[in-house]
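Anyone able to model this chain together with 2-acetamido-2-deoxy-beta-D-glucopyranose?
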Amino acid sequence: MAPRPSLIHLSAVVPVVLVIVFSLLLKHGESAATRRNCATHDYHNTLAELFPNNATGVLNATLAIIPIPLATARRLIPAQYGILERAYRALLPNFPEGMYPVMVQAAHDHDVQLRAYGITIDDFSRVGFEFPFLDLTGDGYSSFRWAPAQLISASNNIALEGSRAYGTIVSPAEYEPVCDAYQRLPNGATYFKGYSLSSPEFVELEMTRLATPSLTPYPLELFKNITNQPTFANATSCDNMIRLFNTTMSLGEHAPKPVLGRVRARAFPFGDAPATKWADVYGVQVATPFIENNYLDCHTMRGYSGTGGPGDSFVNDDVNANNGEL
Ligand SMILES: *[C@@H]1O[C@H](CO)[C@@H](O)[C@H](O)[C@H]1NC(C)=O
Ligand SMILES: *[C@@H]1O[C@H](CO)[C@@H](O)[C@H](O)[C@H]1NC(C)=O
Ligand SMILES: *[C@@H]1O[C@H](CO)[C@@H](O)[C@H](O)[C@H]1NC(C)=O
Ligand SMILES: *[C@@H]1O[C@H](CO)[C@@H](O)[C@H](O)[C@H]1NC(C)=O
Ligand SMILES: *[C@@H]1O[C@H](CO)[C@@H](O)[C@H](O)[C@H]1NC(C)=O
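re: yes, here you go
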């Protein structure tokens, strides 16, 4: 039986998060005050009004899947976290045998707010490799996502420290483009690059939109599923980010765009040198608003709908509670 998660558990944590946010703001008050004037094309945060007491924001992102051998995944992922192969095969029945889907997430974080407290955070970019479908709690079905390292805009101390507090290996970085999720190249492709200011690490994506979107091997459901799995780095705490794919930001003219391209990187946990190159990488470009519940006890999220239940995370609790028996 899946223990039924409850939002009540989560609410006790919020004062802690506020204290952390406030202390970060005090510590780095100067950076919040000297707001960088960065014009972005991102849509504004439509959730701040609906969830004024929660941290909300917008992530405009390229999400792409890099299949790697399961044996390599097993070597890179700390041994104590089981890989839930059944969980990703349920979403991707035709995924190649013996392979595991790593996700690269290259995103611009925009208009982050805690509206009721008048708190806003400067925009920033971030990129990193994420390892979804991991059995953090040992129940054999709840999927968690390991995001061990991130490059984060050097200008945003709150984001840098906020990620480090999870035990993430964080590199202060610069980005091309500076204030957007990607830019357009003369050849029509989109381009994104983040490079560390403190190490030789970088991640670069050049993606082209698929002329025939239906030819993508990865349904949107996969990205929705992965991005709603709680994230951890050293597993001292978990980040519950709820990303909504059904708002105006991801519909109509803004509908998710399947893309195909190449990724080049020198970044943890892949080797230091030389850079690794992956060609024929399929993914999607999509902007979503999000609600973020920070620094939760990972074990309270065992059986949580985002970890193994259908639908968006904050509805359908009943359905999800049973969905554990995969
Ligand atoms: C918003 O924050 C409250 C705690 O203040 C929490 O209980 C609730 O789950 C959060 N809402 C969502 C949709 O995550
Ligand atoms: C996401 O970013 C791209 C590149 O800047 C922009 O063209 C697009 O309009 C953005 N989408 C949303 C919904 O913000
Ligand atoms: C995880 O990282 C946090 C933040 O750096 C640290 O306080 C904590 O002790 C670390 N936990 C483990 C198990 O390494
Ligand atoms: C994610 O996929 C798993 C199957 O691997 C499924 O059980 C679960 O319901 C999905 N979660 C969401 C939030 O869609
Ligand atoms: C989007 O999905 C969430 C969760 O399923 C739901 O609560 C919300 O009402 C939906 N919003 C719209 C605009 O359909």
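The first helix runs from residue 7 to 11.
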